[in-house]
Specification:
alpha+beta; 4 helices
C-alpha cells in the first residue's frame, strides 16, 4: 500500500499576542515620543518629528486592537498567510522555533526580498511541528536563524 502524501497543512492562530499595558506604559511611550519629536523640530527635521508622532499614534491604536484569528496554510505552492501567498521560489529557508508549548511557537522563513527578509508565522495550537518540518523539507532547506533584532526589541518594549 502506497504512503499517502499530504497536499497541505492548515491551521489558525492569532496574528499577535495581546499583552496588557498599564496607563504608565502609554504615558512613558508618549512622553518619549514627544521628546524625540521636539528634538527633531529643534534640529529642523520636521518630517522625522511627524513620523515619530504618527508611529506613536499607530502603536497606541495597535495596543488597543484585539488579536485577530488568521488562517495559515502550507501547500505545494508555498505559504499562505490570510489572503497572501508567499511562494517557495521567493523563499530561501526556514527554521522552527519551539518554546516548549508556549504560545509563541513559530516558523521563521527567510525571504529573498530585500525589505522583508524574515517572515514569522505563529503556530498557535498546531502541535505537530515534525509534520510541518517534514513537509517544508521537501521544498526548502532548514537553516538556523533567529528573529530580527527589531522584533525582539519591540517585544521587550511591550509593542
Amino acid at each position: 500500500m502506497a504512503k499517502q502524501i499530504k497536499k497541505s497543512i492548515a491551521w489558525e492562530a492569532l496574528n499577535h499576542i495581546k499583552t496588557e499595558r498599564s496607563g504608565d506604559w502609554f504615558w512613558i511611550v508618549g512622553v518619549i515620543a514627544v521628546g524625540i519629536a521636539i528634538l527633531a523640530i529643534f534640529f529642523d527635521n520636521f518630517l522625522f518629528a511627524f513620523l515619530v508622532i504618527l508611529a506613536t499614534f499607530t502603536a497606541f491604536l495597535l495596543a488597543h486592537s484585539a488579536p485577530r484569528m488568521i488562517k495559515y496554510e502550507i501547500n505545494y505552492r508555498g505559504i499562505r498567510i490570510g489572503e497572501s501567498l508567499y511562494t517557495f521560489s521567493g523563499l530561501e529557508s526556514f527554521w522552527i522555533i519551539d518554546e516548549d508549548g508556549y504560545e509563541r511557537d513559530r516558523i521563521l522563513f527567510k525571504s529573498k526580498k530585500l525589505f522583508m527578509p524574515i517572515i514569522t508565522v505563529p503556530l498557535g495550537e498546531h502541535s505537530d511541528m515534525e509534520e510541518i518540518r517534514n513537509f517544508l523539507l521537501e521544498y526548502l532547506k532548514e537553516d538556523e536563524m533567529h528573529e530580527p533584532l527589531s522584533e525582539i526589541l519591540m517585544d521587550r518594549l511591550g509593542f
